[in-house]
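Supplementary Methods S3. Complex input for the zinc ion-bound model.
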Amino acid sequence: MPIDVDVVATRAELAIPEALALLGGYLAIPAISCEDAHADDVRTLAAKVRDDLEAIGLDNARVVELDDALPIVFAEWLHAGDDKPTVLIYGHLDLQPVAGEIWRTDPHQATVVGERLYARGAADDMGGWVSHMVALRAWFEQGGPPCNVRIVIEGEEEIGSPNLERYMDGWPDAFEADAMVLTDCENPSPDVPGLTVSLRGLLEVELTVRALDADVHSGLWGGMVPDVSTALVLLLGRLLDEDGRLAVGRVEVDEARRAAGGRVPLTAEVIREGAHLRSGVPVLPERGVSAAEWMWWQPALTVVATTLPTPERKKNALRQAASATLSIRLAPDQSADDMLEALCDVLLASPPGGVEVSVESAGALGAGWLYTPRGPAFEAADRAYERAWGSRLVQVGVGGSIPFVALFGERFGDRPLILNGVMDPLTTAHGPNESMHLGIFRKAVLANIYLLDELAALGRAGIRTT
Ligand SMILES: [Zn+2]
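Predicted complex, serialized as structure tokens:
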């Protein structure tokens, strides 16, 4: 007899307090992947998660560890039948560091304040994959999930997944699936679920200005000899519009995406609070382009380092050279070469005061990604999310680069990739007081349950037809 999905959902909701206790236990382990001192914490957590996946009912739960890498956890359950799709669930158990951050609560002790649970990793990404554990456990209690399931929980996402491809090569079976649910992304608000469909790429460029062979007295020569510092500032100014945004290399965004961007509930208040804007500083004007488009689909510039004189190096001199490191977020489908060419056209033309200007880049540091979610699996996701959240799934982007997503996109882009998560604009992932909204966690659990039910109904043959 088929399992009643509503019974599964009810059971899962009742199990949420227990799930939060389980999550609290995981969050107490400082599995910080970028600090060698915490490598054993990553291993401890991986072993614990393995045990818990096995206890829930998954088969072949194992921790695998390559040389010079942190471990990864695999588990599976393949008894739903050959005609049912295999769904891979991805999450990561490692954490960002907390050193230097000021927290209101202990970052490694889950603390509920109001509607949010605070701890490093609460939403990025432990709450994400724990929401799948709660859903699967409820399915197992009723006899088993309706789809075949594989689980991959990585231990190196926060350091850029440097060994994920080696794990994919070494254990290809562990990644074999008809659809993938990659859970490490954001929702536009606690009321609106997000489906992530794009990432921006990353390009780093060194802009250098040279004028003199030695530093010279500014009182003697200032007025007839260029100052590299001000020339550098003038050059930077060429790249910007009246609002200070990058004006070079903008891309055309198609009508459908434009319209989707307009529906994202990214209000000035959300941006103000999420980005910690000071009270007197306004959000940049939209100027006919949605906030979503500015943050996800257009390129953006940040100066991340300069060799301009610092207070300790202050002296009354004209300097020989000055440079700035420009971090450029590329539009999702923009090539680093195109952007570099656009920058050179502007920066190298008639230099201010005739200074020598050079623009150098080692190429893209992160790949962008632009995905079109089409086909029955996404219609299934739409239904599942609307049922769980009471609100339609909205397509969203990520302004940064996520190496694991680009990698999954490259290797498995021919099958449905459903990118979800439990973050929202107030999560402050990677910063102090990271938190997860408890209402989102509950709805994520329900959406996971309904999604497996919907994908199972499509069947293996139906899921990949586009
Ligand atoms: Zn993450």
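The mean pLDDT is 95. The chain has two domains: 5-198+368-463, 202-253+293-365.
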